[in-house]
Amino acid sequence: MLLSAARPLLGARCSVPVAGLCAVRARALTRGKTLSVQRQERCLHCHGGAALQRQGPAPPELKDIRQIPGPKPLPLLGNTLYMLNKKNGFDPQDFSVFWKQLMQDFGPIVKLKIVSMPQMVVTLNPDDVQTFLRPTPDHPTRFGFNSVAKIRKEDKTGLFKDNYGLLTENGPRWWHLRRRVQAPLLRPKNVAMYLPAVDGVACKFMDSCNAATARPPDAILVTPLPPWFPMLSIALEAIQEAEARLEEAKALGEPDRQLTIMETFLRTDGLSRSEVATMILDLIMGGIETTSLSVGYALYLLARNPEAQRRLQQQVDAVVRRDEPLKPEHLAALDCVVHVIKETLRLYPVAFANARLLTRDAVLSGYRVPAGTFVLGLSGLVSRMEEHFPRPLEFLPERWQRDRPYGAIHPFASLPFSHGTRMCIGKRLAEQEMYVFLIRAMQRYTVTYELDHDVVVQTQLVAKPVTPLAFKFHPRTDAL
Ligand code: HEM
After folding, report:
1. Is there a binding annotation on residue 14?
2. Which of 46, 229, 256, 446 is found 20 to 30 A from 277 (Cα to Cα)?
3. CA proximity to 293, closest of 345, 215, 235, 248
């Protein structure tokens, strides 16, 4: 604002040189030349802008991190006992209760110190989330998978000797992996390659839904991975199959075909076989429960909002037939399903918070927060706040339409996949899976929820329903 108000001051031609102008502007002035609008703007955004800003009212004084409200810390123990006290909302089954109560008691930004953890700052301000997730020059640092890291460190098979994996690594070891795997996983062309396979699985699932009982879909959708789930053997088997396919293709003189994601990993310079295996494990760990739970919440919300379900069915019916394979063009034409998923992830984000260890100093809600602080943006609470989402507890997928009928949406107020260089690497695959599932479900069924109470959700690593998602799938007789 300051800059645009001051712009006329500079005019098309300045006659009085001002100390502190940038080289471009100073050179132009000494030669008696005028600057193009673009070059003037460049000036305003560097030294000229700073000089002008100095003439305006002084910016509000930044406050010290020590002034951030929070429970009084004890010597050595900090707020550890406070956090473990049931009276303060501590519930090992549901961490969200503690965070909710903390923010109610102390306000939108709170400071906390837990033994063996760095100083912690927790915020409900989406501007703060933008500040700490945006900067990308350093390696974004996150922790929270300590048990996985420990198992991998202590593993005797040698599988994790080079690297403990994308989920748990930080610093250069994380970037070594991330820069090699993110293009294959996030490139739209690669994701679209899996559309026929995902579509096939979705259609098969729909055929298996038994209209007479609510149990089968419920059981399939929300069962967590059992501890015996043979993740490692699945990963190793998949690698062997991919290696065999690559060998075969080589023997046949490399026919011109698009490589699968796994084949691309195996062909990537600098990725060892064990790193590929670890990557596959992380994709299974990061991808299965998150996506299936989110689809479960979407069905639940649609079942409880028949009007929204009907609108989605109408759009799906208009765009694609039941017997037609789904193509990227269909997905592009189905904005309703995108809005349904966005609204579902706003109301039921599986990840409750976005977290980073600050690698450089930052200003959060007007407080100076030093590097080394652990910051937490409670996205699970922010995305249900009325100031960001009018009628916050209602399921209103249309609020995500381009014309934003319920008002503008802060881009960091609902952030289910996080943001920046360390955002969810499976975002596009997950979105595609969820869209396909809902499209195929809506074509064949109208879904109802069979219980007379709201689903109860508890948050540990992910937010899970602890009451059954008891659906009934009623075959549609009105669709093509
Ligand atoms: C609805 C589905 C999903 C949600 C809501 C979700 C959410 C998230 C979030 C919030 C993060 C943390 C990002 C950060 O710290 O900035 C994350 C990371 C990650 N996700 Fe997802 N995810 C989903 C599906 C998937 C899928 C399908 C895959 C695999 C194919 C996957 C693999 C991963 C991996 C490997 C990471 C770690 C990335 C890194 O640290 O560099 N996720 N996800």
Report:
1. no
2. 256
3. 345
Domain ranges in the chain?
2-55, 146-475
Ligand 1 centroid to residue 287 C-alpha, Å: 7
Asked if 314 and 307 count as a contact pair (C-beta separation under 8 A), the reply is no
Q: Which residues pair with 95 in a beta bridge?
A: none
The gap between the terminal CA atoms of the chain, to the nearest Å, is 55
| Interval 410-447: pLDDT, tens | 999 999 999 999 999 999 999 999 999 999 999 999 99
Render pLDDT for 88-114 as a digit per residue (tens, 0 to 9): 999 999 999 999 999 999 999 999 999
Instruction: Indicate whether residue 303 lines ligand 1 (CB < 6 A).
Output: no
Strands 109-112 and 120-123: antiparallel
User: Mutate which of 141, 180, 260, 290 to test ligand 1's pocket (most atoms within 8 Å of Cβ)?
Assistant: 290
SS3 390: coil
The CATH fold assigned to 146-475 is Cytochrome p450 (1.10.630)
What secondary structure letter does DSSP report for 49? H
Task: Take atom 13 of ligand 1 and give the residue whose Cα is closest.
Answer: 423
